[in-house]
Hints:
Layout: H1 2-13, E1 20-27, E2 30-39, H2 43-52, H3 54-57, E3 70-73, E4 80-85, E5 88-99, E6 103-107, H4 112-115, E7 119-129, E8 132-142, H5 149-172
Antiparallel strand pairs: 1-2, 2-8, 3-4, 4-5, 5-6, 6-7, 7-8
Amino acid sequence: MRYAATGIALMVTGLIGSAQAAVKDSTSTGFTVENQVLIQASPAQVWEAMTAQIDHWWPKDHSWWGAASTLTIDPRAGGCFCEIAGGRQAQHLQVVFVDPDKTLRMSGGLGPMQAMGLHGVAEWTLQAEGAATRVSWRYRAGGYTPDDLAKLAPVVDTVQAQQLAGLASWLQQPR
């Protein structure tokens, strides 16, 4: 929640452009959500923060082991978006496509969707807009489950918006 509040405060002060969030489509068997934000940083700076600094901005309340864990992304085909807390380990997603400073695509089930047997594709795209970067994060998930995935879509959309706000907030902090 701290990251979401910080992201809202930064939007008000103009350091981060307006955020856009949307459930693009949803059915009982799958959904697509997309969040966007304009960040006053170059694509290279956003890429570095997105990949090498994820442990600093990803909200720990949306990880398996909270503050005890370390999050990493190895931005290469076959690389891992992983979480490690001592002997406990989780692969959140596997990297399947890398175009540095432009596109990072990963495959797998995020959070509880992993145990539900669902599969998804998370794609981050970066587009320069003057001195800023428009960051789009789309996640499309689906598969068999007795649960109605249309009900899960707004929850995933909200969590994804918090995570994107965490990235934007991290990039605007003085170092």
